[in-house]
Design goal:
Layout: H1 3-11, E1 25-27, H2 28-35, H3 39-47, E2 59-61, H4 62-77, E3 84-86, E4 93-95, E5 101-105, E6 111-117, E7 124-130, H5 131-143
Antiparallel strand pairs: 1-2, 3-4, 5-6, 6-7
Bound molecules: zinc ion (ZN).
Amino acid sequence: MTNSATSRNKRRNLQSPRLASANMLYSSEDVIKLYEISRNTLTNWISDGLQFIAAEPRLFLGACLNEYHRQRRHKASQPLGHFETSCYACKQRHSLIEGQLFITPVRTDGLFKATRICPQTGKHANRYVTGEQLDEIYSLRQSNPGSQTPD
Ligand SMILES: [Zn+2]
C-alpha cells in the first residue's frame, strides 16, 4: 500500500474506525482521545444512543462503543432517503422532515435549497428540492409528531 493510500484510509473515519477493546472500560476523556472528538460530540453520541455505565464519572464499555459505531456505519451505508440530506460535517444523514430547516429559493426554475442544521455540529447540510417536494416536506413536517426532536 502506498503512503497516499494509507493517509486516505485514515481520513475515512466511517470506513475504518478506531476499535475500542471490547472488555475495556473507558472514561469520557478516554473516549474523546480515542476518537479525537469534542466533549460536545460525545454528548451528542450519547443522545444518539451510545450506551454508557451510569457510574460517577460515567464509563463506556469498549463493546458498546464498537457497537455504536457499527450502527452508525450501517445507517450511513443505506441509500439516501427521499427527504434526507447527507451531512459532510458529521458524516450522517439528516431528515428534512424534522429539526431546524431553512428554505432558500434558487435562481433556477422551481428549485429550492433546503438547508438542514446539523444537530451534532450546527453546520449546514444542503439538498436541492423542487416546489412539489417542498410542499410534501411541509405537509410531512406538520403531521410528524417528532418534528421537534433532533433526528
Ligand atoms: Zn450532521
